[in-house]
Design brief:
The chain is α/β, with parallel strands linked by helices and 248 residues long. It has one domain (18-147, 191-239): 3-Layer(aba) Sandwich (Undecaprenyl pyrophosphate synthetase), CATH 3.40.1180.10. The chain contains 7 helices and 6 strands; from the N terminus they run E-H-H-E-H-E-H-E-H-H-E-E-H. Strand 3, helix 4 (120-133) and strand 4 form a beta-alpha-beta unit. Helix 2 (41-61) packs parallel to helix 3 and helix 3 (81-104) packs parallel to helix 4. The longest helix is centred in the middle third of the chain and has 24 residues, at 81-104. The termini are far apart. The model has no long low-confidence stretch (mean pLDDT 96). The structure holds farnesyl diphosphate. The active site is at residues 28, 76. Mg(2+) binds at residues 28, 215. Its EC number is 2.5.1.-. It comes from Trichodesmium erythraeum (strain IMS101).
């Protein structure tokens, strides 16, 4: 058992009623983690999957309601073809291998992004995993794949435009609540906390609409090293924040 899996129960210095309901993560630093060990970058992604699995279990163990992970951005297609292919194969393999456990652990999995451009075999695995876990009532686990916040907003605008064109919607009926229904994340609460690993102070086109009031926590730790102790530290920092949502 690695050190990261030891903190089974909610640490006593965290107040259960002040935990974030929904945590989002930008899993950065896989490549650097591998390269600093003289390994190919892909080994960092492989280790990153283990980190994500343990974080999901930890969120469930500690009573959080939702976790969203940025697995592949719309811009990640610009990486070397070999790495892109490796990631697509990895997503598919992990889904196939872990689905039974995901179902058994009552996780409801959902993929968001432009899924129609993903390899057909991955799309099939995604569809199957979402169908199999739809009745689950436990933690909501969302994986952003081929996701871009700007693209999501444009996609929503087009869908709304089509509804107007068909006479099913009037422009004056558009408001924030209606707009949200056209986002990939419809029905999922907004993240209370965004965690980004490996030090970069950017949102990188992730959940632009949804994170309007999210607290942001950046750690220098590289994603493959982000364990339960690091998560505990992030939650302690979150509980010290005063969330005002624009009020005083
Ligand atoms: C960023 O690190 C990481 C990614 C683009 C991929 C993250 C994907 C996983 C951890 C796999 C998740 C799997 C499933 C099934 C959801 P980087 O490569 O940009 O690292 P660097 O900044 O050090 O180069």
């Amino acid at each position: 058992m690695n050190q990261g899996t030891c903190l089974q129960d909610l640490p006593v210095d965290l107040e259960p009623e002040r935990l974030p309901h929904h945590v989002a993560v930008i899993m950065d630093g896989n490549g650097r983690w591998a390269q600093s060990r003289g390994l190919p970058r892909i080994m960092g992604h492989r280790k990153g999957v283990e980190t994500l699995k343990d974080l999901l279990r930890c969120c469930r163990d500690w009573g959080l309601e939702a976790l969203t992970a940025y697995a592949f951005s719309s811009e990640n297609w610009g990486r070397p073809l070999e790495e892109v292919n490796f990631l697509m194969t990895l997503f598919e393999k992990v889904l196939r291998q872990e689905l039974q456990e995901i179902v058994a652990e009552d996780v409801q999995i959902r993929f968001v992004g432009n899924l129609s451009s993903l390899p057909v075999s991955l799309q099939a695995e995604i569809k199957h995993s979402m169908e199999m876990t739809r009745p689950n009532q436990g933690i909501k686990f969302t994986v952003a794949t081929n996701y871009g916040g700007r693209q999501e907003i444009v996609h929503a605008c087009k869908a709304i435009g089509t509804q107007i064109q068909k006479g099913l919607l009037k422009p004056e009926e558009i408001n924030e609540g209606l707009f949200e229904k056209y986002l990939y994340t419809a029905g999922i609460s907004h993240p209370d906390l965004l965690i980004r690993t490996s030090g970069e102070m950017r949102i990188s086109n992730f959940l632009l609409w949804q994170m309007a009031y999210s607290e942001i926590y950046v750690t220098q730790t590289l994603w493959p090293d982000f364990n339960r102790y690091e998560f505990h530290r992030a939650l302690c920092a979150y509980q010290k924040r005063e969330r005002r949502f624009g009020k005083i």
